[in-house]
């Protein structure tokens, strides 16, 4: 009986994790110069929402960010940001817009990694009026939130690692090219000096 109860508890936990895990959408988007890319989420009032982003490639790794509500209200706006995280609660029902603008760039496109997190919709009055709430559900909600944070951190660490690796490889290539250039200059100077000294000490016969 204990084994059966344990299995049922595990199955219940897995089911609750699946149910209560927030919706997480992770994307990579290419934003061309002088262009703007927008994405949309339709939610009900009171729903917790979040936007996490990081510029992976392009230029100075900066982008303009803007979040607007269904009524046109600007919820968040940032200029020339490399990364960021912003959470808020929907103030009204409708479609919320997330926009990434590369208008400041003249010719360099940007690659942006971002995720739009949508929490649970607010519960009705009947659910809120319940005197006793399932403690296991609360623990699963906290666990799902922690897993979401860990997942985001892993993704951003991977992006940062790729960016730093690209910078290191570029720096190493430039160092190698500069070393070859210096060696070529030294060889040319040596040959020139030898030629000049031979000409200087050359004895010319007068016929």
TrEMBL record:
Protein species of origin: Stegodyphus mimosarum (African social velvet spider)
Keywords assigned by UniProt, alphabetized: Developmental protein, Membrane, Signal, Transmembrane, Transmembrane helix
Descriptive protein name: Transmembrane emp24 domain-containing protein 2
PROSITE patterns the record matches: GOLD (PS50866)
All residue ranges annotated as the GOLD domain in the record: 36-118
Segments passing through the bilayer: 175-197
One GO cellular component term: endomembrane system
The keyword Signal is annotated on this UniProt entry: yes
Chief site of localization: membrane
Keyword Transmembrane helix recorded: yes
Domain of life: Eukaryota
InterPro entries: Emp24-like, GOLD_dom, GOLD_dom_sf
UniProt family annotation: Belongs to the EMP24/GP25L family.
Membrane topology according to the record: Single-pass membrane protein; Single-pass type I membrane protein
Cell location: Endomembrane system; Membrane
A Pfam family that the UniProt record links to this protein: EMP24_GP25L
